Amino acid sequence: MEAALKDNVLTQDDIVLTKRLGKTESEFEDLVKDEIVADIVRIRFKADRNKIPSSMEKRKFSDRVKAAMKLAGRPWNEQAKMAAKAAIGQKCEELGLLAIADDRRGPFETLASLILDRLK
Known about the structure:
It is built from 5 helices and no strands. By secondary structure, the chain is mainly alpha-helical. The chain has one domain (about 20-115). The longest helix is centred in the last third of the chain and has 18 residues, at about 80-95. The radius of gyration is 16 Å and the shape is elongated.
């Protein structure tokens, strides 16, 4: 973001951040409904995301899933991380905005509003 601002690729008005409130860091997957993420991790990767220590709850998606995978004795590496992100992305493609938790839709609504304003 800072580099794009500095290089005049973006203006401050172009930026929409997608941080999940209450998290120290977040990724796109942190905006997806918790039950969707939990189901994918359980069904596809045979790990229980709900068994991770409560101290991990404020961490980002990748850290929490890594902990769940390790607790299940499953391997966690870049390939597993990308497979998990792809599976969640595919589910989001199927469900559209319904995949995003109601209390986490703000950035998407802001982005949609910005795009619509620009199309006018």
